[in-house]
């Protein structure tokens, strides 16, 4: 077990977050990285214990056209600033990984400048791919070369050249020695040479225990990259796509099938194939922008934190901010944020509260980090699965419908009671099952209550109990689908027959439920206006324990 097995990442694009100029004049350092230090405590408070930050090193523009791998971008400060930043993260128990842009360099990199000056006589002419002195380009260099993505600004390194390989390996050693970095995210890993990546893995094994290599890979068989010889993990773009489109299309089958395919790809081993899961980043639109129904922010993030893999939050998305990808600019995806504007969000912003609750829940559950994956229920609009590890069975339920849904689910546990980490609701285990009511456009993480210690851990997440109602009041925008009830009669009947006290008649049970529903509505009416959605929430809840907890919540 390594630190990254239990990591929850916070992803920072520093040039954007710190409001650096779009172009680098290579002037005196401006210490903008120091403006990100106050965010470290916020990052810890929302349950993240690792930061992926980058690009960081000297470049001419967006950061991925590196001109000096050994010097912090002067728009962010100097190397002492970066040392200090990593040290302060470590003081808070937060690991740090840098962006490693090793597929290409910028045109101002020393090796490329030497080729421009000395042409055929340059000792670096073989540092880049297919340098052709009989060609030319839009910069009128008098030679051509391979690039990344069709951009001659990004000159492709010849990773098969031993000198290039040794240079980059020495850069990694320098980053560890000088900055104490804990890992590297490899930019454009899907086009890196595999022997080159094997060399990087060798250095990773050498420089620091549990030094982590994660690669940017879009498509393909991820197991080609994630194995003992190359990388520890890659970006999970397949799940990223499924998470937003599966909710926009009310199609949990897409998500479940993606998870199953990836799980099989890793040999059904959640501990040997942990992908880097995310719902947005510096290259794609914000999840809040992508979702047709903003209320789906809740189930999307529950899945992000509970499905097999390592979850990551892109800076600002814990506040529910927008970000739309433009045709010729990613600026709106990489905004400047002032800490002063967001320092109170853990108390005032429901999205931030939810993020913190999920982060803390994951920290307290080994099953969510190491557990196997078992699908328990799958419908277009409802989905449940379990994660089991070392006797702990966590059950995850999500619902993308506009009505509540009742589920009866098996639990592989010897405990007698489960608690919803987000709702605080407690349910009994009856005949090996729990019966739970899943709120509309929401979900929960059901954890076993095994002893006082576990109960105390769960109580630490109690601030979350009111998170979902707060979010629903703020972002509920969709109208109910009148032709599709959230919970069918058969499901409710099954739940009641499983969970009810066998000594009570069905009529008596129904009478108790109806009485509790009337009491809740009466209290709600005294407190203010009761909407039709609020009435539906009450009348669709036919679970006795849930209604009792609802009544208690008013006191």
How would you describe this protein?
With 555 residues, this protein is of the alpha/beta class. It folds into three domains: 20-125 and 151-365, Alpha-Beta Barrel (TIM Barrel), CATH 3.20.20; 368-503, Golgi alpha-mannosidase II (Immunoglobulin-like), CATH 2.60.40.1180; 504-555. It is built from 20 helices and 21 strands. It has an eight-stranded parallel beta sheet. Helix 7 (237-248) packs antiparallel against helix 8 (252-265). It is elongated and about 90 Å long. The model is unreliable at 452-466 and 477-505 (pLDDT under 50).
Helix content: 25-40%
Global shape = elongated
CATH topology-level name of the largest domain: TIM Barrel
Q: Largest sheet, order of strands side by side?
A: 11-10-9-5-2-1-13-12
CATH architectural group of the largest domain: Alpha-Beta Barrel
Provide the low-confidence segments as ranges.
452-466, 477-505
